[in-house]
Amino acid sequence: MLSEEERFEPSRTIERNLGMELIRVTEAAALSAGRWMGKGNKEMVDQAAVDAMRHAVDGVDMHGVVVIGEGEKDEAPMLYIGEEIGNGNKPEVDVAVDPVDGTRLLALGLPGALAVIATAERGSMYSAPPGVYYMEKIAVGPAMKNVIDINAPVAVNLDRIARARQSRIDDLTAVILDRPRHQDIIRQVREAGARIRLITDGDVAAAIQAAMEDYRGIDIMLGIGGAPEAVLAAAALKCLGGEIQCKIWPRTEEERARFKADGIDMDKVYRTEDLVSSNDVSFAATGITSGDLLDGVQYFGWGARTSSIMMRSHSGTVRYIQARHKWRKGVVQG
Ligand SMILES: O=P(O)(O)OC[C@H]1O[C@](O)(COP(=O)(O)O)[C@@H](O)[C@@H]1O
């Protein structure tokens, strides 16, 4: 019989704390970037979030290397791919960041902008080849994990989900980014009879909602979105037990030819496991503008309130954390 202490191995305790520290990083990004809501300035939205996230991440107990970040070193002075972050202590981890998923949403004051960070054991996160910006994606929750196939027609995937759920296709809802490139997918979903929720941005949150067992508003996420966002979504889905399948997507015929010449396999299916292979994944996100998944930042004279989600693959625990932040400790509340 194990004693209470013995049940918690040290590595578990470290990882536990890391998750909580990651929340502080996304909270910092959200608190800072939230000031720019609706001001129409995408650059400042991003700058504020990156600055705050970079500052906050320094104190985190980890030796992190940015795998998904703001781009290459010469174009991004902070949180660039390959940058070492954290205080240098163990654990050694890969880090994926998106200081604002939905910069346009935040700049326009629209719902659903999030600050996001994920960590996984060193060497376990996929990084798309240089010049690859988009992936075709399909994401579902744990019960539909072995049901979907990105290579199957949309109607077939919807039919399989409906059967597995013992429901009808017209009970299902697919979430899709509202883009001209999705006209054909949208037509196929409509012809199959499922409902559609079109979103203007933010397919990380959309994938999470599709995968949440206790959130039944969305059954599947479909369509083409950012390659970095695919890895962040995979980190979240690893914690939730869901499944994302992706394929590299060229934007133009020239890009297709270039990828081919570079030996990039556009038929390869990247599953959750290929995007994040570790079983020690932590994921944190804080709402910046209010959306279906999380509330946005609320400011009031002496402080602000944030709403975050934290998940760990090790335990599968999902925590929703509401925090009240005081700008200065001891300030009298109005
Ligand atoms: O806007 P595009 O070029 O269609 O790209 C889609 C990607 O943009 C987003 O909607 C927003 O990403 P950013 O906020 O980083 O611009 C992602 O969630 C999505 O993967």
Automatic annotation (TrEMBL):
GO biological process assignments: fructose 1,6-bisphosphate metabolic process; gluconeogenesis; glycerol metabolic process
InterPro entries (UniProt xref): FBPase_class-2/SBPase
Chain positions recorded as Mn(2+) 2 binding sites: D98, D101, E229
Reactions it catalyzes: beta-D-fructose 1,6-bisphosphate + H2O = beta-D-fructose 6-phosphate + phosphate
Keywords (A to Z) from UniProt: Carbohydrate metabolism, Hydrolase, Manganese, Metal-binding
Family: Belongs to the FBPase class 2 family.
Protein name: Fructose-1,6-bisphosphatase
Organism: Dictyobacter kobayashii
Lineage: Bacteria, Bacillati, Chloroflexota, Ktedonobacteria, Ktedonobacterales
